[in-house]
Specification:
Elements lengths: L2 H14 L1 H17 L5 H18 L15 H21 L1 H15 L2 H7 L4 H14 L2 H18 L3 H23 L10
Helix pairs in contact: 1-9, 2-3, 2-9, 3-6, 3-9, 4-5, 6-7, 8-9
Length: 192
């Protein structure tokens, strides 16, 4: 995997669509705060699909895209509760098992949302396929992807303005890699 190429793609797309990316990211943060996080999973799915279409088709992201995946509200809400329970069990055991559980969920479900929005997979099928994509070729590359993604997100989360820039950059990077990995995949696309 050529991470440098994907970072360059992310950088170029980020600055080509900077205004619309900042608007959709700020809107996603605002909706998540107002809804007390209840709409966070479904707006993240819409956000990811919008960015994926930008990566594939150079389509301008729009704020209304955040609500384009409302059909996934209940599956993603259920997944959120399940993931929270798994992580809480890990933290009940001690700090290190909790961190291991967080990493296991991230490792397994890295491509879950794009598979649900882009390929139309059901929740558990998307988790299985995401895991298969993680371990299919090179586990080390997938580990590096997760570390890079989390580092970019962490750098921006230090302050709000930074998050408005690093969140779209991190997701463009992730979805550029997803797009490369899914080319030639024999699953139907649900979006044009």
């Amino acid at each position: 995997m050529n991470f440098k190429k994907h970072l360059e793609i992310s950088w170029n797309l980020m600055f080509k669509h900077i205004v619309s990316l900042i608007l959709i990211t700020a809107a996603m943060f605002g909706v998540n705060i107002i809804s007390l996080g209840i709409l966070a999973p479904v707006t993240a799915a819409g956000y990811m699909q919008s960015i994926l279409l930008m990566v594939r088709e150079n389509r301008e992201p729009a704020v209304q895209d955040l609500f384009s995946e409302m059909k996934l509200f209940f599956p993603l809400l259920g997944f959120g509760f399940l993931a929270a329970i798994i992580i809480m069990i890990g933290f009940l055991l001690l700090f290190v098992p909790g961190i291991i559980m967080i990493f296991a969920v991230i490792f397994t479900c890295t491509f879950m949302m794009p598979l649900m929005t882009d390929k139309g997979l059901q929740l558990f099928d998307a988790i299985k396929k995401s895991y298969a994509m993680a371990v299919k070729e090179n586990i080390t590359e997938h580990f590096i992807l997760i570390v890079l993604f989390l580092c970019i997100m962490t750098i921006g989360s230090s302050f709000f303005i930074g998050a408005l820039l690093t969140t779209p950059f991190a997701f463009i990077f992730l979805l550029s890699i997803y797009n490369e990995k899914t080319q030639g995949m024999n699953l139907p696309r649900t979006k044009a």
